[in-house]
Structure formats: C-alpha cells, structure tokens
Amino acid sequence: MNEILNLELNDMAQTEFDCSCGRHHNFTIHDIAIGKGTISQLPKMAAPFKDGKILMVFDNNTYKAAGEQAVNLMKDAGFNVKELLFDRGTDILIPDESVVGRILQEQDMDTSLMIAVGSGSVNDSVKYVSSRTKVPYIIVGTAPSMDGYVSDGAPLMCNGYKISFPAKLAYGVIGDTDIMKKAPMDLIQAGFGDVVGKITALADWDLAVKVKGDYRCDTCVTLVQRALDECFAKAPGLKTRDDDATQALIEALTMTGVAMGLINISRPASGAEHMLSHYWEMDYVARGVNPIHHGLQVGVATPIIAEFFEEMADLLPEGTGELCPKRTEIEALLASAGAPVSPKDVGISKDLFYNSLLKGYTVRPRYSVMEYAKEKGRLDAIAQKITNRVYA
Ligand SMILES: [Zn+2]
Ligand SMILES: [Zn+2]
Q1: Burial code of 38-48, b = ≥16 C-beta within 10 A, e = fewer?
Q2: What is the whole-number distance in angstroms between the Cα of residue 8 and the centre of ligand 1?
Q3: How many angstroms separate the alpha carbon of residue 25 from the centre of ligand 2?
Q4: How much of the chain, in percent, has pLDDT values that exceed 90?
Q5: Which residues are within 5 Å of ligand 1 (an ion), measured at CB?
C-alpha cells in the first residue's frame, strides 16, 4: 500500500494503487523524464506512435529554446514530422480560438501524436486539442513556470474571456533541466511563486478537512510536502540557474500535478492564494491589460494568506496553524529566490487589493481561510488591517 512514497518521480508514471485514504488511485501519464539532457529521450517516448504522423507545435521563442532540437531528434530517428510554428514576433502567444483552430487544421487524418514544445499557451492549446480529438500528446517543457504540465485543465481565451476547459493529461512529460534553466528569469520566479503557493494551499486543505469534513489524502500531502521542502532548500540557487535548484523546482511543480492527477481534485495545488490571483487576473482582463505571470501573482498572494492564518490563529482547529509558516518567513523564502514579495511589487493597486481580500473567497466554491474569516465575522477587519499594512 502506498508504495508510491518510495518511488522516484520519473518512476511514478502509470502508477495504480489502493491508498490509505480509502480510494484507489490511478495516475495515467505514461512517461515522465525530468533531469539533465532528458530531451534526448523524446524519440524513445514517441516510439509507440511511429506509424503515424507527428505534429510538433511551438512558438518562435519555444522553437529557439527547444523546438528545433526536438524536431531534429525526431527526424534523425526517422519519424514523419509536421511542424506548426506560431510566429507572434515579440508579442506573447495568447491561447485563443485561432490558435486552437490552427492546431486542429494542421492535424491530419493520420496524425498519431502531437508534441507541444513550450510551457504556457502552447501546452494549454495542444492539451485541449489532444483531449478533444483523442490524439495523445507529449509536452516538452521550456520553462519551469507553472504546474500545468501535469494538470487536467486547459485555460484558454474564449470569446474574450478566460475559461479553464477540462482536458486530459499528457501522454508523456519531458522536463530537461539544461533547457529549462535557461528560461527567462521572470518565468523561473513565476514557477517558484506557484510552488510557494502550495504552502497555503495545503493549510487551506487541512482547514477544510477539519471544519467542513472535506476529503483528504495523506499520501498526496506527503508527496507534495517532500517536493516543497526540497525545492525551498535549494531556492537561492535559482538566482544563478543552478542545475539542482532548477530540477527541484521542476519536480515540485510536477509532483503537485501528480498529486492532483491521483485524486482528481486540485486541492494540493490551489487554495486562497490562487483565489486572490484569479481575482486580480480577472480585473486585468476586464481592463484589457495583459496580466502578469500567474505564478508571480500566486507568490505575492501567499504571504497575505499566511497573514490571514496568523490573524485567525486563536480560532483555528488544532494543528492547522502549524502548517502555515509566518508571513515574514514566506516573504523571506520568496526573496531568497529573487522573486517579488509584495502585491505592490507586481502592480496591484490598493483598491483592487482591498476588494480582493473582501471578495476573493467568492471566486470559486472552495473553502479557505478567507471564507472561515467571513464566517467568524472577522473578514472586514482583517482586510482593512492587511491593506493598511501593505499600502502604508
Ligand atoms: Zn497555480
Ligand atoms: Zn490517497
């Protein structure tokens, strides 16, 4: 039982077991290859699909980062490759109807596999098309920027709005540290911020278990917690693009995805810190402004949620408060990796910030410390106090 705790991340693909939480878990990804030089494993991973055509998708940035190399590896190994390059010049690729439509148009009747080279938009778009057409895909990551490699949602723009469509997990995941450590520094910091957010996500989950009787899987908590500890211990190395630090970051992001994949809920990945981030993002979108990277927002939201836990300390169930470090400790952790620390650092205005503290809990129906504060009649006072401190 729970042998998964003894497995290395790369060996967790296709794991199936009866868990101590009472459920049977089944993790459907076929192959995970994280580490130095793992892009060379791409042809081997794709081998079962060699009879058909391979559609490879990238944008101009990800083509330079890994796409060209991936195409050459596949061609040298004798695959029938078709390339789709989204060239947006210096603009970022927005995963909207036109991008999804183009991928669909380039998918031929005999396409047996798609390979997405990228991290955000390319991954989400290919993931979506893959789950609708049932043509499997492999993701070759180019930046350790978020935990979406191994998640069952595809956030896309739809008629001007961002919608997270349900989607299927990738067939295989390649996270080559040699490639990902060269990603733009703000993407590395964003990935780190998303990982830091798991601290309050786990604390919120514990609160929901104890106050609302929510389901919990201790195996998943252990898996994520171990990956976090490893990543946080090595965080200072991210500033110098250290191999070990990059690998620990990719593993933490991937492990969160594995945990979500095992239990089919996103509790291990997202709590109140993500609600603040979504609230801010919706405001950016409504104003027609490009939001900043998801993980940077999540990162600066995390100490704020830690402050909620501090303010609610006298009312928390036994053991919950201990799961969340102090606000100042989380701020120091973010700073150790060179990541932004305060909502002010990422351009969140005082009004938006205050409103997000008051209404953030309504973003999605998920119990968190913000809703707990509301129930206990303390939300207004806490929102006022934190806003005054941050924007003093
Ligand atoms: Zn996230
Ligand atoms: Zn379990």
Answers
A1: bbebbbebbee
A2: 23
A3: 7
A4: 82
A5: 194
